[in-house]
Here is the input.
Amino acid sequence: MKVLGIDPGSQTLGWGVVEGSGLKYQGVAYGTVKSSPRQAFSKRLLKIYNGIEEVIERFNPDVISVEEAFYAHNVKVALKLGQVRGVILLIGEKAGLEIAEYSPKLIKQTVVGYGNAEKHQVQEMVRLLLKLRKTPEPHDAADALAIAITHFHHAGVEKKVKKTMRKT
Here is the structure.
């Protein structure tokens, strides 16, 4: 299974591809799609769409794993993040990929063991779990890898629960 993790952002969107099965996985690639805050927001969304579409074409993932929306103090930031997530979900559906969403707290809990972990802790644990020589930079890309790793740890559980629910 190949998972494309996405850390949504309107200025810097992180992506990371992790491949494997069960709890055995390895990093394939990671990066970012950067947009200028001076551009019209619609143009930034288009750049995100094109950038992630290119990543999907290049790496051919089976799953897109996306960070769920979280509470933001600034309503405008929350709305923009929601629009970026909408673009990502649309790309996943258009490509016929399985889509999984995980909360920021669950991602940190899974990767670091602590739901309120700091960015540098997530980066270091991603480096260790994927046996990378150096810490993935920027943190948006490390977060995307963490989101993909989270899918490997929780996908099997979700499928078992769904299977059990169908039996009852």
Summary: The helical segments are 41-59, 75-94, 104-111, 119-129, 139-167. The domain at 2-167 is CATH 3.30.420.10 (Nucleotidyltransferase; domain 5). DSSP finds five helices and five strands in the chain.
